[in-house]
Amino acid sequence: MTAAAQRSAPVSSADQRRAPRHPVDCRATAKLALSISILDASVLGLRGRASLPLPPGTLLNLTLPGHAARHARVTWADGDTFGCEFLKPLTADELRRLTDATTHAPQLMVG
């Protein structure tokens, strides 16, 4: 192809990159902000609903009401509903704060 033909040929968006790309073959981790509706919970895990499917084995980094942070692993999924197990159980106080954040939940007696 002549230089003139190259200049007039359509340019793909991949060729308009601002920096050159280099081949790689490795894995990365993506963090995604996802709103989850918690349907029920225990000190060991929860059942929730998400707008994206969460297949079993998915690892979650959850921030729960009361600012408790927990890592959890999805153990089952059925459509948009899933169950997960906390890698470290909630304390009684963390579970109480979680249920206190639910206006229609019955009073939780822990301890």
Give the topology string: H per helix, E per strand.
HEEEEEH
Overall geometry comes to: elongated
Distance between the termini: 79 Å
How many beta-strand runs?
5
Main beta sheet strand tally, sense and closure: 5 strands, antiparallel
How many separate helices? Answer: 2
pLDDT < 50 stretches: none
Can you give the mean pLDDT? Answer: 84
Query: Which band does the percent of strand residues land in?
Result: 25-35%
Spatial order of the strands in the main sheet? Answer: 1-2-5-4-3
Question: What is the structural class?
Answer: alpha+beta
Helix amount, in percent? Answer: 10-25%
What is the CA-based Rg, rounded?
Answer: 23 Å
If you had to describe this structure to a student in words, what would you say it looks like?
With 111 residues, the chain is α+β, with helices and mostly antiparallel strands. The chain has helices at residues 3-8, 92-100, and strands at 36-41, 45-50, 59-63, 69-78, 81-86. A five-stranded antiparallel sheet has the order 1-2-5-4-3. The radius of gyration is 23 Å and the shape is elongated. The mean pLDDT is 84.
Short description:
14% of the residues lie in helices and 30% in strands. It contains 2 helices and 5 strands.
Which properties best describe this structure?
111 residues; alpha+beta; 5-stranded antiparallel beta sheet; 2 helices
Write the layout of secondary structure elements.
Layout: H1 3-8, E1 36-41, E2 45-50, E3 59-63, E4 69-78, E5 81-86, H2 92-100
Antiparallel strand pairs: 1-2, 2-5, 3-4, 4-5
